[in-house]
Write a structure and sequence with these properties.
Layout (H helix, E strand, L loop, with lengths): L2 E5 L4 H13 L3 E6 L12 H5 L4 E5 L5 H11 L3 E4 L6 H6 L1 H25 L6 E5 L29 H20 L2 E7 L2 E2 L8 H13 L6 E4 L5 E6 H13 L7 E4 L3 E4 H10 L8 E4 L11 E2 L4 H7 L7 H17 L8
Parallel strand pairs: 1-2, 1-4, 2-3, 4-5, 5-6, 6-10, 7-9, 8-12, 9-13
Antiparallel strand pairs: 9-11
Catalytic activity: GDP-alpha-D-mannose = GDP-4-dehydro-alpha-D-rhamnose + H2O
GO molecular function, one term: GDP-mannose 4,6-dehydratase activity
Organism: Agathobacter rectalis
Amino acid sequence: MKKALITGITGMVGSHLADLLLENTDWEVYGVCRWRSPLDNVSHLLERVNNKDRIYFDYADLNDEMSLISIIKKVKPDYVFHLAAQSYPLTSFTAPIDTLNTNILGTCRLLEAIHLEMVEDEEYKPIIHVCASSEVFGKIPAEKKPKEGINEECPFHPASPYAISKVGTDLLGRYYAEAYGMTVMTTRMFTHTGPRRGDVFHESTFAKQIAMIEAGLIEPKVMVGNLNSLRTYADVRDAVRAYYMLVTVNPVAGAYYNIGGSYTCEVGDTLNTLISYSTMKDKIKIVTDPERLRPIDADLQVPDCRKFKEHTGWEPQIPFEKTMHDLLNYWRDRVGKGENFLTR
């Protein structure tokens, strides 16, 4: 039986990837968790974890090399999905060192742990997915953006410490493929969202605030940052299907791909869409919060995904409207359960 290791399994993407693998394969799924990792996103899987029903949680931390060496040696996964990161761009401006350490050095520690195991056992040849980010492209002037969208060969111009860290992540994946013959592939996923999206991201905080307004918990005001950035949205469930196809459809060592959805709009349009679904749509006001503004913004995030689509046959299937409905209903459900939230 094949084994898959997911770093960041308790995040939005990691939890949806675990769902997909459990439903569509016979693989055993091993999730990397820190002892303090919140388990909200995987609460529906905990009974299976407790029963050791094809899914297992093991402790490791990207900032602890020995824990990574230990888990690779113990599990010896056939597939590694490296999703764990300090993933919030705005936080990276106030915590740049933690972001760079976790994302760059953490990726290096993981790949080195795998490399060491491959040196010890020459028959061990895992397939590895390193998750970078569309943020590596950063702030591309409109006149320099290719007509078909941002392709893989567009120059990097990172616009945050997070984006810089993902440039390092991206290059490390390719380095280990070229230097050591490891089957490492790197992805630059553009905006992807849906149920379980963290409330620090724009579309999710919009949905959370709307759900709280509907419940009478806050005034009918949605606090926002920059609404003018252009984004192309994918559903997280389409994203994890892409990641599965990445490692199973003729994987090419050292390959790097842009992946993203097919619906493009400004952040303000996303907000208006969510408000249009609300029972309070006629009462909600929009208020700019300076604390939600980045010092510099990657404001033209529109991908050209032809390379990945031609290689794998992947296409996004879930429409933007369903993604937004599901995201809003996710927050309505959490608010309805009486949870308390930070106002962010």
